[in-house]
Amino acid sequence: MTQLGFEGMPKRLYPCTPHRLNLWVECPRRYRMTYLDRPQPTKGPPRAHNSLGASIHNALAGWWRLPYEQRSPEAAGVLLAQGWIDEGFQGPEQSAKWRERARDMVANYVAKLDPTDEPVGVERVVAMRTDAVALSGRVDRLDLRSGGEAEDEGEQLVVVDYKTGRHLLRPDDARTSMALALYALAAARVMRRPCRRVELHHLPSGEVASWEHSDETLLRHLRRAEDIAGECGRADAAFRDGLPPERYDEVFPPHVGPGCAWCDFAQHCPEGSAAYPPRRPWEGLAP
Ligand code: SF4
After folding, report:
1. Which of 25, 30, 31 to mutate to test ligand 1, by most ligand atoms within 8 A of the CB atom?
2. Sheet strands (E) in 130-278
3. 272 C-alpha to center of ligand 1: Å?
4. Which of 49, 161, 188, 265 could tie 195 with a disulfide, CB 3.0–4.6 Å?
């Protein structure tokens, strides 16, 4: 049953991650299969581009955990090769080719970093509460930097998010990312320092797409997150209260679009898989 609220009782906050909110926006049916259906419907096969992304993220996190005198480009390459995730590729040859490409990506990337410039967080969990939501998430890297547009405030935190996809990124991608804005807000709360700058570091190209938020733009993202969380909370409650399967699509409608070709649950979704047939697991890799 839905929990009743009584005067004086603390309001029940909706606990969520930016990923959960984004998934609701992308496709409520997929959201239901990911977070609510139990047992969870079987997923499609692992994807090579996800293996690539996870391997690179793990190697970069491991690199920052080394003693700083060991943080060389070669060490990043070794970490990448040792932790290589070999799933979703067409075969051993393709996997080996991408392992070498990824090794170059991380080595070239860290070659431009100062290994003594210790981040204040690596894969750091940040969290915050408002009157409506309890948000949490894991930030790839949190830097503390001085100068720039926040010179008047001294040092400020910077949210760094690693990207490994095939498409180049623009400042607009950083500006419009709700997840990055929420990380910035949560990081500022947790670490009690200003945090307005968000950056997408694209490993394949070495390019950085960045955005400097204002208090207003951060607040706008937060209000949007609260609105989405409200929708999720009502849908979750309907599901918990025994929504019959024949009414699932009223509350969790499918959003059919190009993303269906990569959906883990496409095999359970006739509309999505008919409109956008599933792609082969390695087809998300760059040519
Ligand atoms: S295939 Fe498309 S419409 Fe169906 S659940 Fe997945 S994302 Fe949603």
Report:
1. 30
2. 133-145, 156-163, 195-202, 207-212
3. 5
4. 188
Distance 28 CA to ligand 1 centre (A): 8
8 has pLDDT over 70: no
**Residue type present at position 231:** E
Residues with CB under 6 A from ligand 1: 27, 29-30, 254-256, 259-260, 263, 265-266, 269, 271-273
**The model's pTM:** 0.93
Q: Which residue has the tokens 């860290």?
A: 110
User: Each residue of 120-147: pLDDT tens digit?
Assistant: 999 999 999 999 999 999 999 999 998 6
Ligand 1 centroid–CA 235 distance in Å is 17
What φ, ψ does residue 10 adopt, rounded to 5°?
-65, 140
Alpha-carbon torsion (22, 28, 30, 31), positive or negative: positive
d(CA 252, CA 214): 34
DSSP 206: T
- Alpha-carbon torsion, ordered 34, 209, 57, 156, to 10 deg: -100
Q: Which two tokens stand for residue 75?
A: 């060490």
Query: Which stretch of DSSP H or E encloses residue 270?
Result: helix 270-275
Closest residue (by CA) to atom 4 of ligand 1? 272
What was the pLDDT predicted at 167? 92
Q: Could you tell which of 31, 268, 271, 279 is best to mutate to test the pocket of ligand 1, judged by most ligand atoms within 8 Å of the CB?
A: 271
